[in-house]
Amino acid sequence: MSDAKGQIQRLKLVGGALCLDFANTTGWRPDPGDEEYLRDYEDVVVWAALAGAASETEARRLLRRAKSDPERARAVHARAVALREALYRILSASAAGHLAGSRDIDAVNQVVHDAYRHLCIAPHDGGFAWEWDGARDALELPLWKVARSAADLLVSSELRRVRECSGHRCDWLFLDASRNRSRRWCDMANCGNRAKARRNYERRREITARVGEARGA
Ligand SMILES: [Zn+2]
User: Fold this and answer.
1) How far is the CA of 172 from the centre of ligand 1 (A)?
2) Dihedrals φ, ψ of 212, to 5°?
3) How far away, in angstroms, is 15 Cα from ligand 1 center?
4) Domain ranges in the chain?
5) Distance from the alpha carbon of residue 107 to the mean position of ligand 1, in angstroms
6) What is the mean pLDDT of residues 18-28?
7) Burial class (CB in 10 A: 0-12, 13-18, 19+), 98
8) pLDDT band at residue 151, thresholds of 50, 70 and 90?
9) I need a labelling partner for 185 at 20 to 30 A (CA). Which of 54, 66, 199, 213 fits?
10) Architecture of 7-186 per CATH?
11) Separation of 24 CA from ligand 1 center, angstroms?
12) pLDDT reported for residue 192
């Protein structure tokens, strides 16, 4: 286990949609440093369990499978990070009123294709529900769930409510559910307070400078 293990448990889920929380598993792009939460496949599974993309039973099974096939787990981790970054670029561009490049859209579509190939309907509670066919042991399962969440969001009117945090260097994404569409921060306790503290500091510095000028006059 890496030193940073345990860090993922402190990760806040503030996106309001599974795919946004997935995009928020890193920060401070392009130099995340300690803000990288998906350091290996194990992190992907722990995140999935915390964010609701895998049940605890599924998560335990995936971790066992990953242990028996570490090479594949490494490849799926790389796919997870690639999916996350393509998703981030698409959603960040959309939040700024732009369209992302076709390479990113193709990259997400590849995972969307894989995901939908494994979806089926199954009897459930007197009716039917979506299920993942033959995917119990697929290491990609958390990625498929993220891709499905992304596809649902991208084709919906909710896409217009996706915002990128205004915090200094913060690139977290969230759904703005506020009535007047005025949410600016991923998390008031983090970025909101930091911005307030910086404004206070700047105001004090300006006052000190003006007073200093007057004293010198
Ligand atoms: Zn933020």
Assistant:
1) 6
2) -60, -40
3) 10
4) 7-186
5) 26
6) 95
7) exposed
8) very high
9) 54
10) Orthogonal Bundle (1.10)
11) 10
12) 74
